[in-house]
Amino acid sequence: MAVKKGLGRGLDALFESYKGEIRPDVKKDSRVQEIKLTDIDPNPKQPRKQFDEEKIEELTNSIRAHGVVQPIIVRPSGNRYILVAGERRWRASRAANKTTIPALVLDLNDKEALEISLIENLQREDLNPIEEARGIQEMIDKLELTQEEAAERLGKSRPAIANALRLLQLSKAIQDMLAENKLSAGHARALLSISDERKREEVAAMIISKGLSVRETEKLIQNLNRRKKKYKAVQKPSYILEIESELEDSLGTRVKINPGAKKGIIEIEYYSNEDLERILERITSH
Predict the structure, then answer these.
(1) How would DSSP label each residue in 178-218?
(2) CA gyration radius for the chain?
(3) Residue 236 carries which DSSP code?
């Protein structure tokens, strides 16, 4: 159906082709028109449940000054209309004491209306990685899509969709860190290479407390995984392994102890001059 092809390029494609080209059964006189705000009902199946009141207030002030720049999308319901996309603009227009709002009226069925609502939510600029991942999963579940079909709808690559959904494998604690923007998607993808969930959360806390970059995080996790393999391969006294582990946790980097008969060597890795200064500060502060 033509509407799906358009959605793959984003909601803006709907406005480029609203002159009766979206669906064969849409009336050819479909146009953006001014509709009374009181004639529009919110969508009871709106997938987005929470709205940032501060952002609504900012939009309200913008609408007072400049009006509504982009029309909302509605569909007919008897002699009224049901909101399909643009609830923030609708709410802000009411708060700005507007009486009408520009709207594109489309004759959509329930599934098409849901698809537009889901896609609009996923195209918001303020989405954090977890909101995006949950939105994509909701779209796949509710519209019964494959990952490839979801990628086509959203104009994204299949690997991008798969990588986004992988974040949902993380524990709720780490997902909350992502939702609060304490961790980036790059940090989260690196954490996925740690098989032990408890260790993941420990490393996630370390990333935040030490302010590690994604690259530093990847190096740290590579070293942790390498050390885990060496646990089995290298025969060291248990107390040496415990000291290595304590030093790594304290310094936030890989530490290797090579014990000898009377003396040994301690190796401490660093990944940049800034990282070296950080480690030095940590050692001298004790």
Answers:
(1) HHTTSS-HHHHHHHTT---HHHHHHHHHHHHHHT--HHHHH
(2) 26
(3) -
Determine the length of the chain.
286
CA pair distance 100, 58, nearest whole angstrom: 19
What is the rounded distance in angstroms from the CA atom of residue 262 to the CA atom of residue 248? 23
Q: Are 102 and 71 in contact (CB under 8 A)?
A: yes
Residues of the chain with pLDDT under 70: 1-30, 45-50, 125, 228-235, 286
- pTM higher than 0.70: no
Spatial contact of 83 and 114, defined as CB atoms under 8 Å apart: no
- Return all residues near 19 (Cβ < 8 A) that are at least 6 apart: 28, 30, 31
Tokens of 182: 């304490």
Cα distance between residue 51 and residue 60, in whole Å = 13
Annotated active-site positions, please? Answer: 87
119: Cβ contacts below 8 Å, ≥ 6 apart: 7, 10, 11, 139, 153, 154
Give CA 223 to chain center in angstroms.
28
265: left (phi over 0), alpha (psi -120 to 50) or beta: beta
Assigned CATH for 2-124: 3.90.1530.10
- For residue 208, how many other CB atoms are within 10 A of its CB? 14
Q: What 8-state DSSP symbol labels residue 23?
A: -
Predicted pLDDT of residue 14: 45
Alpha-carbon distance 135 to 119, whole Å?
9
Q: Alpha-carbon distance 6 to 140, whole Å? A: 18
- Give the pLDDT score at 50: 63
Per DSSP bridges, beta strands 72-77 and 80-85 are: antiparallel
Whether 71 and 36 have beta carbons less than 8 Å apart is answered as no
Give the pair of three-digit tokens for residue 73.
């999308």
